Amino acid sequence: MKVTLQNLTKVFPARGKKQQKDVIAVNDFTFEIADGTLIGLLGPSGCGKSTTLHLLSGLQKPTSGKIFFGEDDVTDLPAENRGVGLVFQNYALYPHLTVKQNITFPLENRKGKDKLTKEQMSEMANEVARLVQIDGLLDRKPAELSGGQQQRVAIARALVKQPRILLLDEPLSNLDARLRLQTREEIRRIQRSTGVTTIFVTHDQEEAMSISDLIVVMKDGVVQQIGAPQEVYDDPTNLFVATFLGTPPINVFDGYVQQGKLYIGTEAVLETAGVPDGEVTAAIRPEGFVPCAEGRLTCRLERVEVMGRDISVVSAHDSAKAVSIRSIVGAEHLSAVSGAQVRFDLKPNKVHLFDKQTGARIRF
Amino acid sequence: MKKNNAKAWLYLLPAILFLGAFMVYPLIDVLIYSFEEGFNFASQSFVGVGTDNYSYVLQDPYFLQALKNTFILVIITVPLSTGLSLLISAGLASIRKLRELFQTVYFLPYVTNTLAVGLVFMILFKQTPYSDGLANLVLGVFGIEPVDFIGGPYWAKMLVMCIYTVWVVMPFKILILTGALASVDRSYYQAAQVDGTPKWRVFTKITLPMISPTVFYLIITGFIGAFKAYSDAVALFGTDLNAAGMNTIVGYIYDMLYGNAGGYPSYASAAAIILFAIVLTITCINLLVSKKHVHY
To answer: How many helices (H) and strands (E) does chain B have?
Structure first.
């Protein structure tokens, strides 16, 4: 099912005695989600991603703008008639019902000609349970399941009614690191095999990048960038997107451009033809550093962390915004990095320049 | 380990002392009295040991009347008050405007003195040479003959007694249930809403099971409280409850100890033990039934 958001806006009016300002949770969001894709809504807390999800589910009404499922305008359709499957952050499994009763719960709500027999419901529940691989747990209560299993039950409950779209609210945040890795692959597999258009919300960029077809980066209710994960990573539109994506995070420097050269501190570190002279913010991905005896950027070496395949060089520079600069370089450079200083050459495609005031990207 | 034990007992000592002196000892004492025939407080003597006290009490028409009154009261008021409280607190949970006002109004009877409330009921229901009471006034609008609710037929007195009891016990139940309803995670309701669950089904399949431990607690304490009814009857019908035919088991026990017919501690003890047995049985039945319907 194709999903279209048209100038979607949600304003929460000011509340309380103190005159606070209205909160614009989602601001003029326009986007078309192709059928069968997996979309990750990504951003820091309070950026409006969960509100967007709630608007899609119908639990909240937009202040203005429209939502279409396929060609249907569902903007004014209440949640119960939208046919969405929603997986809650805390799963919201009914604790007094067994796994099977939880899964058949949405089916039992059907009325009239859609009413199903017990056998039909049981069969549908078994089928979806097999899909998410919980068919051995159907008689248990949610409290007797692990976090990952509960997550699957919640997905099964959302999928059993064959929703037009599937929405997941922070699906992995309640799982430990190992389960998280496993479950995100599982979500990808389930989404692939059902082909249901899926939108999930996360604040974890790694999670979003690893499984999404497209990611939507949001900040303060405003969409910053939409694109394939690698594309957004390689070509951020502004400083926020650049700093939000990537682990270890991108290294940000104060710099300036003079006569087609980028200066950090007093050193000219990179040719930047076509960039007008003036102060800029330079951001360099950790993998953009190449240690080199005659390197153009000189940093104070603090320590080297060996990780096997790669080494992580931690250094410092007076123009850097953070206390330390973290760069990831191949292990073959280990011998080149020693002493009080380390010198780097920079890979041009890993260096992004931004306007010092607005944070907008300056391309070169 | 041993030292720890001594310490633990030391901490428990105050509670054990008080509970022992004021709960356990009297309980055992009452049990003993109930088998001692013709016990006399003044001389601390008795004429024999046996079950005569029980057979006397069980054949006493006043006791049987009290037993009947209490059972009617329990059977009518406990389900009625619990059900009404559920409806009201569910209603309170679903409104926004004036919720605090209604909560206060519903809680008022709880902080009002029983006898003061009784007075209000007198004004509502009592017939005097000057007025038929407010209730009769309202009934008169529908063309119904005035009924003497306080001094009249048995059913009328019982009706007033039940209305009074329900009204008095509801505030506490509403308070507890409102708390229980507020503690149910909202995401359950949102999940149900997204799945298109009808309101009634949400209430019976989600809300009720979620608050079932609280409801069960209210039913158990409701039963026990209703079996111990006494002051309510006094507030409405005065102290001579036997004459009014509105005595309760606790009222009977009190009368046997201090009332006009007073001075029969053995009979009072036997009646108390019978009441204890009844409450114990009902509570056990409740516990058995609850195993299936209460989800912790």
So the answer is: 15, 2
- Contacting B with CB below 8 Å, chain A residues are 57-59, 79-82, 84-86, 88-90, 92, 94-96, 105-106, 108-110, 157, 161
Domain holding A76: CATH number? Answer: 3.40.50.300
User: Residue A109 is nearest to which of B185, B196, B295, comparing CB atoms?
Assistant: B196
Long-range pairs for B276-283 at CB < 8 Å and ≥24 separation?
B278/B227, B278/B249, B279/B223, B279/B224, B279/B227, B282/B223, B282/B227, B283/B220, B283/B223, B283/B224
- Name every chain B residue with its beta carbon within 8 A of the beta carbon of A164: none
**Stretch A338-344: mean pLDDT, rounded?**
87
Domain match, A339 and A357 both = yes
Domain of residue A330: give its range.
249-362
Q: Which domains does chain B have, with CATH numbers?
A: 61-293 (1.10.3720.10)
Q: Residue B133: which region, alpha, beta or left (left: phi > 0; alpha: psi -120 to 50)?
A: left
Record the tokens describing residue B85, joined without a space. Answer: 């409280």
Is residue A299 helix, strand or coil? Answer: strand
Put residue B38 in one of left, alpha, beta given phi > 0 → left and psi -120 to 50 → alpha: left
Pair (A106, A233) in one structural domain = yes
Q: Which residues contact A300 (CB under 8 A, 6 or more apart)?
A: A315, A316, A317, A340, A341, A342
Q: Which of A243, A278, A294 is the last residue of a domain?
A: A243
For residue A341 the two structure tokens come to: 């200083």
Q: Same domain for A98 and A169?
A: yes
- Note whether B66 and B245 are within 8 A (CB): no
DSSP 3-state of A79: helix
Q: Under an 8 A CB cutoff, do A85 and B194 touch?
A: yes
> Are A121 and A39 within one domain?
yes
Task: Please name the residue of chain B whose CA is at the shortest distance from the CA of residue A88.
Answer: B187
pTM: 0.79
Same domain, A86 and A126: yes
Q: Which of A85, A92, A110 sits opposite B187 (nearest CB)?
A: A92
Cis before residue A248, ω within 30 degrees of 0?
yes
Q: Contact, A78 vs A16, CB < 8 A?
A: no
State pLDDT tens for residues A287-326: 999 988 888 999 999 999 988 888 899 999 999 999 999 9
Same domain, A229 and A299: no
Residue after which a domain boundary falls, among A222, A243, A264: A243
Closest residue by Cα to residue A319 from A263, A275, A272, A358:
A263
Residue from the list A95, A96, A109 with its beta carbon closest to the beta carbon of B195: A109
Residues A51, A170 within the same domain: yes
Q: Could you give the number of structural domains in chain A?
A: 2
**Mean pLDDT of all residues in A14-31:** 80
**Both A295 and A172 in a single domain?**
no
Q: Measured between alpha carbons, how far is A265 from A179 in angstroms, rounded to an integer?
A: 44
Q: Supply the mean pLDDT for chain A.
A: 89
In this complex, which of B188, B193, B295 lies closest to A79 when CB atoms are compared?
A: B193
Chain B residues in contact with A86 (beta carbon < 8 A): 190-191, 194
Instruction: For residue B198, give how far its alpha carbon lies from the nearest alpha carbon of chain A (Å).
Output: 7
Q: Tell me: the pLDDT tens digits for A130-156?
A: 888 888 899 999 999 988 889 889 999
Contact A57 B194 (CB under 8 A): yes
Task: Note the ipTM here.
Answer: 0.81
